[in-house]
Please model this.
Amino acid sequence: MSDIQFVFMMLVIFQAKQLIGDYLLQTGWMVRGKSKSGPGFIIPLSVHVSVHALMTLAIMLVFNPSLWYLAALDFAVHFSMDRIKASPRLFGRYTDVNKQSFWIPFGLDQMVHHLTHYFIIWSLVSLR
Model:
């Protein structure tokens, strides 16, 4: 398989991972919980990002097990971005879906997740 074919396959795999982790497997408990003030956000957010990290770990174990640690990177970046987006003291204070102030952080969140995936894909290709 050529590098370009591998990259395209990884883009599709990580896009599916994002859909599964952020939309199909994210429960209402996770969504509500990661928006809590104080330490109450930690467990629901950790469970949510653990789903992502475990899927990334599975991908790494199939394609390059020596890069297992990129699952921890995915966890850390996803945790940080989702907390920034959901925290009532940060972007989470923008809750009106009819306003641009809600959608800009939402788009930023998705962009950061995709850039994380691109870095992971770049690592997979570079270290093949």
